[in-house]
Amino acid sequence: MNTKLTLTIEKSVIERAKKYAKNRERSLSELIENYLKALVNTESDKKGQEDLTATVKSLKGSFKMPKDFDEKKELTNRLTEKYL
After folding, report:
1. Could you tell me the sign of the dihedral formed by the alpha carbons of 15, 20, 25, 29, in that order?
2. Is 12 left (phi over 0), alpha (psi -120 to 50) or beta?
3. What is the share, in percent, of the chain residues with pLDDT greater than 90?
4. Contacts of 24 (CB under 8 A, 6+ apart)
5. 18: Cβ–Cβ under 8 A, 6 or more apart, which residues?
6. Has this prediction a pTM greater than 0.85?
7. N or C: where does the chain have the smaller number of CB atoms within 10 Å of the terminal CB?
8. What is the CB-side half-sphere exposure of residue 12 using CA atoms within 13 A?
C-alpha cells in the first residue's frame, strides 16, 4: 500500500532531482523510495552484499528488467558479437 509523504527540501535540489529522474525515465517518488529501501535494509537482507560498494548498493532496484528477458541468450549474443 502506498502512502503519501510530504518532505521539505530546497527548491534547487528538487529541480535537479526531477531532471535526474526524468533522464533515467523514473519518477522522483520511485527514486526516493528505492533510496529509502536501501537505507533501511535489515541485517538479514544484507547477507551476501558485504562486498558491494555503496554506489552499487544505491543502484539496487533502479533498473527494471523486461519480464521476457533471457539472460543466457543476451550473454550469448553479446559474447558472439565481441569475439566473432
Report:
1. negative
2. alpha
3. 33
4. 31, 62
5. 28
6. no
7. N
8. 0
What distance in Å separates the CA atoms of residue 63 and residue 68, rounded to the nearest whole number?
15
Residue type, 6: T
Which residue in this structure is represented by grid cell 547477507?
A: 47
Give start and end residues of each alpha helix (H) in the chain.
Answer: 11-23, 28-39, 54-59, 71-83
Task: List own/partner pairs for 29-32 with CB under 8 A and 24 or more apart.
Answer: 31/62
Residue 51 grid coordinates:
562486498
Distance CA 49, CA 53 (A): 9
pLDDT in tens, 3-28: 899 999 999 999 999 999 999 889 99
